[in-house]
Amino acid sequence: MAKKALITGITGQDGAFLSKLLLEKGYEVHGTCRPNSSPINWRLKELQIHDEIKMVPLELFEYSNIIHTIDKIRPDEIYNLGAQSFVSTSFEQPIYTSEVNALGVLRLLEVIRNVNPEIKFYQASSSELYGKAIEFPQSESTPFYPRSPYSVAKQFAHSMTINYREAYKLHASAGILFNHESEYRGTDFVTRKITSSLALVWHNKLDVLELGNINIERDWGYAKDYVYAMWKMLQQTVPREFVIATGKSHSLREFIAIAADTIGFKLEWSGEGKEEFAVDKNTGKKIIKINEKYFRLTDVDRIVGDPKDANEVLKWKPSVSFEELVQIMAKADYDRVKNDKLLI
Ligand code: NDP
Ligand code: GDR
User: Fold this and answer.
1) Which ligand 2 atom lies nearest to the CA of residue 190?
2) Does the chain have fewer CB atoms within 10 Å around its N or its C terminus?
3) Under a CB-based contact definition with an 8 Å cutoff, are residues 122 and 233 in contact?
């Protein structure tokens, strides 16, 4: 009989890639969308898998609908990807973010413990836990220093996942995933904001790209590679945490440079700090400027992961380089804008 997976947050970037992977592996895939809202399933449609997924309404806020859903579906594996995933929003909505990202996970763990403790559980932990990182590179044993309500909530969820594993012997794993991006990333996240906005500027559909703190560095990988690591974690005999990362960090300025080059701009930077801007040397037009409203109260300056355990135990390795990642995203957005395809 086919294994059953339940994916919360299936309409998001990772949910789409993970569904595709699990369907290819012969799983029956159930995915949750929030009740009374029409699912934003453009990603599932673009990947041509929306007809193969059984959608179920689920709100991580609400215990009773979680117990009802899990009791009815009786999944073998649960991948908890649902979250208020935008770090900036968590400063404006810290309580909502904590309800979903922290208590939502506890609700799921309680249901698993009560309904069927044999269910394997994956929790989407994040490199944001390292925040103001105190050692480089960051591994599974690096202490956390969260820098936003988002990451504080994720820290609660991470620790709770470990506690339920130890206390109730659940097969509960947490992937500490570093930033992973793709042509299916939401346009509010900085990478896709850059590729989609530069494509719009190129086609004269946007005047200028406005950014916040461009002096940050991240360890960026390709989302499709990262969902494979999630699945691998639940196939292990022993559940545990794994850092999933490329092991290389790059600056946001490098990302911008490759994206602009791929689209056809020749960037020239001038000014300093909040007055910094970039023009296209071909036309002299200002195409990037800084806007204070995109700065965060506390930010993560630089992080880089150590994926040694994932390499050795999961036999996991990223397959797409940083440069290829930026090019995939920039080309996809260039084509979408050229063909008048809606950017969501
Ligand atoms: P997205 O923002 O693309 O997707 C988030 C998903 O969560 C959406 O399907 C959304 O549904 C759903 N969701 C939001 N609120 C609720 C709620 N209250 N109840 C149920 N579902 C909800 O995120 P990603 O795919 O990028 O990330 C997946 C997970 O991995 C998230 O938990 C994120 O925090 C975490 N993560 C992501 C990383 C990354 O670089 N992408 C790195 C590390 C961790 P809807 O369509 O209704 O909005
Ligand atoms: P992050 O991703 O906070 O790392 O969270 P995001 O792309 O939002 O920000 C990355 C960095 O870029 C800086 N930045 C801007 N960010 C946005 N969104 N918009 C801007 O205009 C802008 N200008 C500069 C930010 O200050 C920040 O330092 C993502 C999410 O997917 C989380 O759910 C996940 O846990 C982490 O990645 C790992």
Assistant:
1) 7
2) N
3) yes
Q: pTM of this prediction?
A: 0.98
For residues 290 and 272, give the distance between their C-alpha atoms in angstroms, rounded to a whole number. 10
Which CATH number is 4-181+219-244's, of 3.40.50.720, 3.40.1000.10, 2.40.160.210, 3.40.1170.60? 3.40.50.720
Cis amide bond preceding 39, omega within 30: no
Q: Which residue has the tokens 């390709």?
A: 222
Candidate CATH numbers 2.30.30.60, 3.90.25.10, 3.30.450.20, 2.60.40.180; the one for domain 190-218+250-302+321-338: 3.90.25.10
Q: What is the pLDDT of residues 242-290, one digit of tens each?
A: 999 999 999 999 999 999 999 999 999 999 999 999 999 999 999 999 9
Which ligand lies nearest to the CA atom of residue 293 in the structure? 2
- Cβ 207 vs Cβ 344: under 8 Å: no
Residue 332 CA, distance from chain mean position: 18
Pocket lining: 34 vs ligand 1, CB cutoff 6 Å:
yes
**What is the spatial distance between Cα 284 and Cα 265, in angstroms, rounded to a whole number?**
11
What is the C-alpha to C-alpha distance for residues 147 and 144, in angstroms, rounded to an integer?
10
* Rounded distance between C-alpha atoms, residue 11 and residue 33, angstroms: 7
